[in-house]
């Protein structure tokens, strides 16, 4: 920018000085004060304005805290609703037998052991085997059967499949009944304790 000549500078100062406005009269201040007093206090901010103001003031701390809380909530919700993976087609799982381990039965009575074979999906063909130790025998049609082990094949429905096995004890003692199920390449065994008492 080039230097102004003294005469040009003086003319510019005069023009800038002419732009000044005189301060308002004292009556203006009094009039403004009267109008503000008559209007009363300002109306309180709406709820939304207060929320926005709160978030604006607490933003440096509040937003990271909200993010952490949302992450924890999402983790807890996903943990609660996550379902276990489904078993592959054709697999079966044997649940614990319904009969309580250590069940006592008199030697003169027949015990019915209820085995609950539970399958996640229907299985067309599953192999089962129940084995008895010496001192127990299978019971059918009112008499002891000479078999120590009984095997059969049957389909399984999806869900619970209760199979009752009648056995009888010849002498007092604790006996271990072994149940086995095989479906495809999966084999599961469970033991049931049966106590035969005098009587």
TrEMBL record:
Region (Disordered): 1-24
Domain of life (superkingdom): Bacteria
Keywords of this entry: Membrane, Transmembrane, Transmembrane helix
Stretches with biased composition (Basic and acidic residues): 7-23
Transmembrane segment boundaries: 61-81
Protein's name according to its UniProt entry: Uncharacterized protein
